[in-house]
Each structure stands twice: as C-alpha cells, then as structure tokens.
Amino acid sequence: MTELMLKYFRTKQKEVQKEKIYETQCPYCSMQCKMQLIEQSVVSRKQYKTVGKDNPTTQGRICIKGMNAYQHAFNRERLKYPMLKVNGEFVRITWEQALEYIKNNFTRIQEEDGLNALAVYGSASITNEEAYLLGKFARVALKTKYIDYNGRLCMSAAASAASQTFGMDRGFTNSLSEIPFTRCIILAGTNIAECQPTIMPYFEEAKANGAFLIAIDPRETATTKLADLHLKLKPGTDAALANGLLKVIIEENYVDDAFIQDRAQGFQEVKEYITSLDLEEIGEITGVPISQIRKAAAKFGKEETGMIFTARGVEQQTDGSSAVRNFLNILITTGKLGRPNCGYGAITGQGNGQGAREHGQKADQLPGYRSIENEEHREYVASVWGIDPAELPGKGVSAYEIMEKIHEGEITGMFLMCSNPIVSNPNAPFVKNALKKLKFLVAVDLFVSETARLADLILPTSSYLEDQGTMTNVEGRVTLREASCPLPGEAKHDWQIIVDIAHALGKEKYFSFSSAEEIFNELRLASQGGMADYYGITYERLRKEGGILWPCPDLLHKGTMRLFETSFAHRDGKAVMAVVPNKPVVPKEETGKEYPLYLTTGRVMSHYLTGVQTRRSPALAARNIESYMEIHPQTAEEYQIPDQSLVKIESRRGSIIVRSKYSEAIRPDTVFVPFHWADSQNVNNLVGKELDPVCRMPGFKLSAVKVSPVNDVYAN
Ligand SMILES: Nc1nc2c(c(=O)[nH]1)N[C@H]1C(S)=C(S)[C@@H](COP(=O)(O)OP(=O)(O)OC[C@H]3O[C@@H](n4cnc5c(=O)[nH]c(N)nc54)[C@H](O)[C@@H]3O)O[C@H]1N2
Ligand SMILES: Nc1nc2c(c(=O)[nH]1)N[C@H]1C(S)=C(S)[C@@H](COP(=O)(O)OP(=O)(O)OC[C@H]3O[C@@H](n4cnc5c(=O)[nH]c(N)nc54)[C@H](O)[C@@H]3O)O[C@H]1N2
Ligand code: SF4
Ligand SMILES: [Mo]
C-alpha cells in the first residue's frame, strides 16, 4: 500500500465518527430472524449494514431480504403525515383533522347504512398486540361483525385442517430443533429455500444425518433440489396424491394400529375409501409415476420417525383444507405424531402469520383462539372487555367475501390496516371496483400502496424499526421485537392509531392503553384458558428467555415445545381423520381447448408479497425488476413464444403481460408467475373467485390460461 493510500484510509476511518446499533427483528417472513442494524455516520452521510443475532430459531442467520429491509424503512417515499384526498390529490392534514374526519364519516355511514356497514380488514404483518386490538376495535368500538384479514389468503387452509384434525392450530406441532433428527421428511408445496431461507440448515442437517427428503411441487425449485425424490405433480392434485401415498401405506401395512386405536377416530372409513381407489387412476390425475408414489410411501411408512410440512402450494387451493387433512391422515396412519422427531408443520408465511391468527382478527374468532359463536367464549371475553356479551356482534365473512358484500351494498366503509388487497386478492379487478365503490376508505400504511391510492384518507404508521411488540414465529414461539428508531415525521404506531380513533369515537374507556406492553397484558388475560393461551408470557420473560412457545398458561410454565404427546385437543383427546376424495366436491377449473395451460403463482427470493416494500428497496428490486412467466421451452415453442420476450397471459377473468423465461424445471403443462407486481403485471387479474368451502381460501395456485406472444396480439 502506498503512503498516499494509507493516508486516504486513515482519513476515511476518522470520518466514521460514530456507530449506532439498533436491535431489531426482520419485518418479513415467519422466521422472524433477530438482527442488528448498524448505522455508521460518515461525515457526509449515514451508511447501514445488517447482521444476524443469535436466537433459538435462526441462530443468527439472516437472508437477503432481512439484510436489506432497512432500505424500505428509510425510503424517501415513507408516509410521514396523514394525507386526505382532495379533488383526486392527497394533501397533508393534521391528526386532529384526520380523527375528526374519521369520526364524522364512520358515524354517518353507520347511521345511514347500519352498524355492519363498516368493515375492518387487518393483517398478519402487524404485532400480536395490534391484531388483538384491531379485533377488539371492530367488535367494541365499531360494533361491526365484518372483520377479517389477509391471513385468510395465507394460513386459513392449514389452520382449519389442524383445528378439525387435531382440535387445535399451532402451525408446528414440534419445535424446529427436532427436524435434524427425523428420518423421512415430506415437503409438500413449500419453497423454503426462497421463502424461509434461514430454516434450511435444519433440513440440510437432517439430510446429513441420513434422512430421506421427498418434495412435492410442479416445479423444480431450490427446495426440491435438496430432496432425494421429487414428485412433480400436476397443480391442484395434492389431495389425490396423498390418497395414493395412503393407499400404498395401508396395502403394504405400514399402519400403526396401536396409535390409531388409542388416539384417532375415523380410520375405518378412510381405509374403506382408500381401498376402493385405483392407484393407476391416481397416477393419471396427479401426473406422478406410480413407481414414485410407491417409493415415497414406502420410505415414509418404513422409517421409525417422519415429519410432513405443507405450505401454500397445497393450501392455496379450493380444496386446500381437505388436502392438508389428507397429509395429516398419513401422519396418523403411520403413528408419526406426539413423539420425538415426528410431527406436522404448516410453514407460516407472514412475520406474525401465527400470532395474528389467534387473537380475534378472523371473522368468527375471539382472542385465545376462542369462537365468537360459543356462548361461554363470548361471556369470558366480554367480561375481560367489560361489556355485555349480548353486545358482541356475531360472525362475519372472509376477506374476499367482504369485497362481495361491498358490491352488494351491505358494506359501504372500510378501515384497512397493513394490506394491499387490490393486488393480493383473487379476481383483482372486481376487488378494485369494490374498493372504489366505498363511501369511505381509510388505509393505514407505510407507503401509498396501490390500494392506499384508492383511499379517502391514508394514515402514516411505523415500520419494524420503530414499533415495539410481540410476533409469534413459525414454531409458535412468541418473540419480543423492541422499538429501536424514532418515528418519522408524524407517523404513529398501528396500535396508537387504533387507540386514537377509538377515543375519537367516545370509546376511551375500553381503549385506555398507552403502551404495547399494556395491550399485551390485556391480551394475556383475554387468551387465558383458551387454546392459544399466552397468560404465562410477559415482556420481562421474553427479554430474559428469548422467546416462549405457546400454550403457556402460567408464569412458571416453560412453554410447550411438543404438542399432543398424550392427547389431541378435541374433547375426547382423539385426532379426527377425514375421507378426502381424489376430486374435490367443488370442481376446480379444468384446462381445455381454449385455456390449455395451468397457471400457478408464488414467490421469488428477493421480493415480498405485493412488493410494496421490496420494490422500494433498491438492492432487492434490482434482482427482479419486473414480473415474468416461467415456461417450459417445449411449450413455449408450441405457442411461438421466444425466451425473454413479452407474452400475454389470459384467463377467463382477464389478462396480463409479462416477460417469458424458459425453464426446463417446470412441467410442460404449467406456467408459473410470481405475484409481487401490480397493475398490468398483477397475476391476480387472472385468478378466479372460487373459495374453499371449509376455510374460504382462494385458489391462487390453479387457473386455466392461454398464452400468446405480444407481437401477435398487436398483429391481430
Ligand atoms: N421471498 C419471499 N419469502 C416469503 C414471502 C414472499 O413473498 N417472498 N412470503 C411469505 C408468505 S406470507 C408466505 S405465505 C410464504 C409462502 O411460502 P411458500 O408456500 O413456500 O411459497 P409459494 O411460492 O407461494 O409456493 C410454494 C411452492 O408451491 C408450488 N406449487 C404451486 N402449485 C402447487 C400445487 O398444486 N401443489 C404443490 N404441492 N405445490 C404447488 C410452487 O411451485 C412453489 O414452489 O412465504 C413467506 N416468505
Ligand atoms: N396470486 C397470488 N396471490 C396471493 C398469494 C399467492 O401465492 N399468489 N399469496 C397470498 C398470501 S399467502 C398473502 S400473505 C397475501 C398478502 O398480501 P397483502 O395483505 O396485500 O400483503 P402485503 O403486500 O404485505 O401488504 C402489506 C401492506 O402493508 C404495508 N405495511 C407493511 N408493514 C406495515 C405495518 O407494520 N403496518 C401497516 N399499517 N402497514 C404496513 C405495506 O407497505 C403494504 O402496502 O397475498 C396473497 N395473495
Ligand atoms: S425474510 Fe425471513 S428468513 Fe429472511 S431475514 Fe427476514 S425473517 Fe429471516
Ligand atoms: Mo402468506
């Protein structure tokens, strides 16, 4: 190094005047990696880097999204003031004006159209405290029955399946620490390598220890590459595939009779139905060679221990709930539950995908996973809230059905917190028109998202760096994220916004909170004695113990690492098996002459959900600047679509234009499009409105489409 260079570096070093460390937790997926944001103040500017921090779930690992999350939080487009739409333009107003405006409009709407004319639409990206408070806000401050949230599009199939089969829904029956020691793993419709990257070492370790990994996915992905066997099924046929696996398991007698006898109901009916099925036919339905079905079943059946994981590939189907139940049938039949290194995992999606589904944001739910239709549950929660149980509204409808109610004129106003439904809901043009029809829409967001653009009023809120609260991660582990940065401008925390509006509506008596911890303490009480019992968890314990797995019913309870060791959560302690038909009761869209290809949708590593945050993070956006359609070269040739060229994709609902991307990794009868982009690239313009009859999950993973090169479109 020359003298000159040395001098340069010394001066540079001196320029780094100070370093600040912000303790935080990633705002994105369900791993909820703990991390530190390091801010270096250099004379002219601030620079940032993020490093992982040790914790029981991810041991200090982070992925590229976590590494670059600060970029959206510090983005210049962050909302800092309440913004009111005046003649089509957003103008800054004060909080006093905003609250007055909300009060007047909410009151007017409820006077004109009834209490249920106001809907609340929530999210699983907010904290437990905020999710809890939003549920209470809808029922106590607004007295409306219409509340639901974006988790309906995410976790509802897995949640309903676990509730029906086990009597209780915690995504993982075991803690992650058991994965490395299991002998056989089925990964069904999950792309953990891109969606929960920091979970990967658990599976890599299992493999290193000799476990056999089976992946079920219509595409080869970074996840299926880890597997020993990849069942490349036709989209939407998981229920039938699970029947095929069960058939071999039963025929080859890998059945755990003692377990079934002691701990399950309904095996005989399942067995009878399975015996009546034809494996050849299952091979045809699923497109998976029978030899592979046999191999997978034998491996899973034979091994002493095994685990099954499902995610949105299986679940985001109009038979998602029963498809998951069929995978649970396999676990029960082989007795792989309630003991070490055996169990089920629904891999949660959003940061608080677990906690936000437990404390009252769902249309039919009260805190602690209680039911709004159960008299005892209503009485208990009403007593915590200090109201008469008769005042509690009844059950509402699911997220997409709220949009239908708007079109029908029953809902005329909405309070939207932390979601971008015109991009994330199926049948997107219908949803956009619904929101445009509202008399009054308030959106609480960090940015002017595509949906916020339609709002009458946008309220600025805090990002993960500024907001304190608990999040329940993929394992069911409740973790505390501390606030580490000051709020920008006049932004307020989501919980503060809810509290302020409740006060403006004259409900201060029920919303007298001045910190997240105070809300958590009420949540603890409201959840006490429920399925998801958080009573024994306190901020103090979370700080000391670094996370606790629920249920945790008292202050001395250590939390629950493994569920169902001696009994399931149904009254009689037994798991309930279900007969799942090969073909769903509500038929799925079929491909045919006009729409010959299956379309399935999902994610890429660098973007998050509707992309509002990641499209504003330069380091992430640069990796995937636009949407694309993954297509097999053979199929592309058939439809004369060159690689990397614009292609029109059409379904019965609408069309989009994206760039083609050749890939041998996908089935020739299927194309794949990620859903992180809006407007003319919004793949939900193509997805239909049909919902799973049990859990109201849309069929995001299956539509029939046709594709054509864009040049031809113009030529026509
Ligand atoms: N990078 C990134 N990570 C994320 C997110 C993100 O947006 N980006 N979102 C978070 C959220 S909220 C969620 S819910 C999770 C989602 O996590 P995943 O469910 O793992 O993600 P997806 O890409 O939606 O779908 C998973 C896989 O299902 C496959 N698939 C499609 N159709 C079928 C089918 O019919 N059957 C089967 N068996 N498989 C099928 C797809 O090819 C895909 O590889 O990820 C979380 N993590
Ligand atoms: N085709 C297709 N569609 C899908 C899916 C699919 O696989 N395929 N997956 C579905 C799934 S699993 C999910 S989870 C949904 C998610 O879909 P959305 O609910 O639309 O989720 P996001 O894109 O995360 O929208 C969150 C919004 O809240 C803002 N925000 C971020 N943090 C905060 C906060 O702390 N407070 C507030 N108030 N706002 C905040 C963001 O800026 C953004 O505008 O999409 C579903 N839609
Ligand atoms: S996106 Fe998920 S895996 Fe990546 S750092 Fe954030 S929480 Fe961890
Ligand atoms: Mo999700």
TrEMBL record:
Keyword Iron-sulfur annotated: yes
Protein name: Nitrite reductase
UniProt lineage: Bacteria, Bacillati, Bacillota, Bacilli, Bacillales
GO CC terms, sorted: membrane
Membrane-spanning ranges: none
MF GO annotations: 4 iron, 4 sulfur cluster binding; metal ion binding; molybdopterin cofactor binding; NADH dehydrogenase activity
Signal sequence coordinates: none
Classification via InterPro entries: Asp_de-COase-like_dom_sf, MoPterin_dinucl-bd_dom, Mopterin_OxRdtase, Mopterin_OxRdtase_4Fe-4S_dom, Mopterin_OxRdtase_prok_CS, Prok_molybdopt-oxidoreductase
CDD domains on file: MopB_CT_Fdh-Nap-like, MopB_Nitrate-R-NapA-like
Keyword Iron-sulfur: yes
Co-factor requirement: Mo-bis(molybdopterin guanine dinucleotide)
